[in-house]
Structure formats: structure tokens, C-alpha cells
From TrEMBL:
It comes from Hirondellea gigas. Residues 72-109, 111-147, 148-183, 185-203 form the EGF-like domain. It holds the Pfam family EGF. It is found in: Cell membrane. Keywords: Calcium, Cell membrane, Disulfide bond, EGF-like domain, Glycoprotein, Membrane, Repeat, Signal, Transmembrane, Transmembrane helix. This is Fat-like cadherin-related tumor suppressor homolog.
Amino acid sequence: MNIHSDSMFLGARVTGDTLNPKVAYEFVGCIDQITLNGVSLPLTLKPSNNLDDLMLKRLVNVEFECADNLPIPGICGSHPCHNSGTCDEISKHKYKCSCPERYSGHQCEVDEAPCSSSPCLNEGVCIVKDHTFVCECPANLTGVRCDYGVYCIPNPCQNGGRCEEGSRSPICKCRHFSGEICQDDIDECTRNPCQNQGTCLNF
């Protein structure tokens, strides 16, 4: 999952922008019926008017067919090298990872300078601890990267709305209200829910 946006790529690691995508760790095979936390993920580019719906936003190097005889991957086929390391097949059951600068370990899993990419947001202070980073966050901010609390503390959602941190603004989850910050009352009586000559009162 790409932690810098609200997008998640399946089958490969994709970086770069839409016009110049960079694809690594490409999966060779067929993908069908994908579920995440019990929710089926869409496999076609079909727009939705509901902001809560999961949408397939773009495809990179995808073919809508599956070969009958897929090649059998070697020991490097599972992409065992992390952090953009290159896998070299030494024998049928042995491989060696060539790690980029800053990374080491058998699978390039050790980050020698985890703070060099400035992972802490919103003026958080990065501290190296056991080859990973820990962010010391300013007041009112929490989260692994000091990314929670930017929009939701204090809660901007009115009328009991629940606030969720969006990428650029707060996202208010409303009950019986609508609007960007749950400011508009929904008149449930407009749907005439009462039967048998009952009188509807909107609260």
C-alpha cells in the first residue's frame, strides 16, 4: 500500500506519476476475485458517485487475458529482496540480493539511515531506533508519521459527526445530517416513512 496517498496497487510496486509510472516487483500470473477485509475489490474501471466506494483508478501493464502455460518462476520469482534490491539467482535454491545504498542484510531489509527520507510529517522529529524510525510529534498530533490530528483535533464535524483524517482535509461521517461538516439536517419526513396515516416529525 502506498502510504503517501489513498491508493493501493496490487500485483506490483508502482511509483512515479500517472504519465511516467515506475513498476517493480511485477507479478506474472492471473488475478481474480480479490477481497480485502471481506470486501470485494473492483477489477474494472467503473466510476462511482459514492465517495465511500472502492474504485479501480488505473491499470499499469495489465492484459485482460491469462496464458494457458505461464512460465515457472525461479527462486527470484517471489522478489525476496526488499527496498528495491536486485535478486541474483545463484542456483536453483539459492539467491543473493544486491542492495542499494543505505540498505543491508540478506534481503536488504536493514535500513542504515531510516530518517534520511524525512518520514515524520508536520514538524515531527525523527529518531533512529533499531534500524527503524520513531517520530516525536508536536502537541495534538499522533500516528506513526505524526499524520493524525492535523484535521480532526479539534473535531470540525458538527452534530455528532465522526472525523476521519483525509489526505488534504477532514472527512466527516454523518448520521441524519449531510454536508462537508455535517451541518445540514436531513429531513427524513420528505420520504413519507409513516404508514397508516401516521404523522412524521423530523428531529
